[in-house]
Amino acid sequence: MESKRLRLLQEEDRRKKIARMGFNASSMLRKSQLGFLNVTNYCHLAHELRLSCMERKKVQIRSMDPSALASDRFNLILADTNSDRLFTVNDVKVGGSKYGIINLQSLKTPTLKVFMHENLYFTNRKVNSVCWASLNHLDSHILLCLMGLAETPGCATLLPASLFVNSHPGIDRPGMLCSFRIPGAWSCAWSLNIQANNCFSTGLSRRVLLTNVVTGHRQSFGTNSDVLAQQFALMAPLLFNGCRSGEIFAIDLRCGNQGKGWKATRLFHDSAVTSVRILQDEQYLMASDMAGKIKLWDLRTTKCVRQYEGHVNEYAYLPLHVHEEEGILVAVGQDCYTRIWSLHDARLLRTIPSPYPASKADIPSVAFSSRLGGSRGAPGLLMAVGQDLYCYSYS
């Protein structure tokens, strides 16, 4: 496996030169104008060419404490809605995790420099799930879901994003909203649905807990299995949940937890579901599991309409990244390869080897955006692995 990875890395270095010979954008456009390529094939080939031309470049991370960057390893990165910032969880050498926010607005070619804002707020517990939360304004907070450890219970914590850039003590101090006296809090999701305003959900062991941050009101929904993945629909009043048993079900937010019929939709995988993503029209749902299956479900017929082959997973908690604007699906496998598929026909467009040797501790975490660094940014992939951050951008 290691010799294969090194060979693919060498091919990555030669990829740009090969792409420019014969198979280039101008010749494809000319063929399209002459009628040798129809519009669909032209768009597919143009998209494939752009992805194949992405080059790996290392990003220079600046920080108030450069010595810490050399020893702390990236655990995960998560881009905000506008791809202006990355929330990071880093494994600290002495044990535990610490958090930071990377400002992406200075991520411009050819320099590729970013600044990392860190905070001393850290924990010795494992971060199971994280999402951006919009309490005061868009992406104003970060919602963290922490695993229990020994006598310490699992919990959900809401951190103000300003905590990382605000140097004045006592302002916007982090607040722990709720603490669950149970060993496992597996997943979390923030609601942007008007029918569950200021609410977040947490997926627990055999339970889903819906909490209103402002009123403190909670609703509990019993399940048959641990809830490992969650996402709220934006328009429909639904919360989708993926379970260790392989079941995917939706909770109807209009139903009280005491009533019957709150399970609005039920789908089934053969293995534990680790990620669920609702597409924009809310008629389709993408899900992945611990057998390495990625399936696109039609929520109207509750049937699988497409599968994306090549993903590798046996035990890891790996997210899916769906980007409808660019028409791609991105997932990192347990084998440390990042794969990019065409969303519309499930073709595997590119397989990116990790710059690091494959290991459980070095599964890359990625973020993809059509505007890295904000509204004027270029499309590209960010990959965090080990102590390093890499950018694969294209225009």
Question: What's the SSE blueprint?
Answer:
Elements: H1 2-20, H2 25-34, H3 39-52, E1 55-58, E2 60-63, H4 66-71, E3 73-79, E4 85-91, E5 97-103, E6 113-123, E7 127-133, E8 141-146, E9 155-160, E10 175-179, E11 185-190, E12 199-204, E13 207-212, E14 218-222, E15 227-232, E16 238-243, E17 247-252, E18 263-268, E19 273-278, E20 284-289, E21 294-298, E22 303-307, E23 320-323, E24 328-332, E25 338-342, E26 348-352, E27 365-372, E28 378-385, E29 388-393
Helix pairs in contact: 2-3
Features:
globular, four-stranded antiparallel beta sheet, 395 residues, mainly beta, five-stranded mixed beta sheet
Describe it for me?
The protein is mainly beta and 395 residues long. 12% of the residues lie in helices and 44% in strands. The chain contains 4 helices and 29 strands. The chain has helices spanning 2-20, 25-34, 39-52, 66-71; strands at 55-58, 60-63, 73-79, 85-91, 97-103, 113-123, 127-133, 141-146, 155-160, 175-179, 185-190, 199-204, 207-212, 218-222, 227-232, 238-243, 247-252, 263-268, 273-278, 284-289, 294-298, 303-307, 320-323, 328-332, 338-342, 348-352, 365-372, 378-385, 388-393. Helix 2 runs antiparallel to helix 3. The longest helix is centred in the first third of the chain and has 19 residues, at 2-20. The protein is globular. Residues 17-22 have low confidence and may be disordered.
